[in-house]
Amino acid sequence: MCFQTIIAMVHYNGRIINDELLSSRFVSQVSRYLEINNFMTVSALKQTILNLFIAANGKSYTVDLCYRFPVKTNELKICYRTVMIEDDEDVKFVIGYAKKYEPHVHFEVMAFIREYIEISSDVIWEHLEKQLNDSLDIE
User: Fold this and answer.
1) What number of other Cβ atoms are within 10 A of residue 3's Cβ?
2) Which end of the chain is more exposed for a tag (fewer CB within 10 A), N or C?
């Protein structure tokens, strides 16, 4: 695959709104443009987006990404579906797909960024055990 870059509109911690045709729309109060290339790994993409919105403050963050892609409906309208970006192959696919439609549609990414809080597995198991006991009404 040759080197390709696209300009993406990145939305920060917004909402994904679906209409009656299940067409998705990204809405956020903060958004910025970002250049993305097909040699980026998903971790590099996440870090680039994190740097775009969050000043370095020593905290750890998790970043979940999804993008919109156009789908033609029976009425020849364009609807948008939302798909997660989870690995390096997704990044390459997204760039190729966006390049194909770039003259006609804006490429949009939704970034959900939240502070990373490490929870020990013991706490998780205790919580799950309590939920199970509550559901079985065991004291």
Assistant:
1) 8
2) C
Tens-digit pLDDT profile for residues 99-136: 877 666 778 999 999 887 766 556 666 766 776 776 66
Q: Please give the order of strands across the beta sheet that includes 61-72.
A: 30-37, 5-12, 107-115, 61-72, 78-85
Distances (CA, A) of 15 to 26, 34, 64: 6, 19, 13
- Which domains are seen in the chain, by residue range? 5-136 (3.10.20.90)
Q: CB under 8 Å to 58, separation ≥6 — which residues? A: none
pTM (global) more than 0.85? no
Q: Which two tokens stand for residue 16?
A: 């994904």
Q: How many CB atoms lie within 10 A of CB 95?
A: 22
135: left (phi over 0), alpha (psi -120 to 50) or beta: alpha
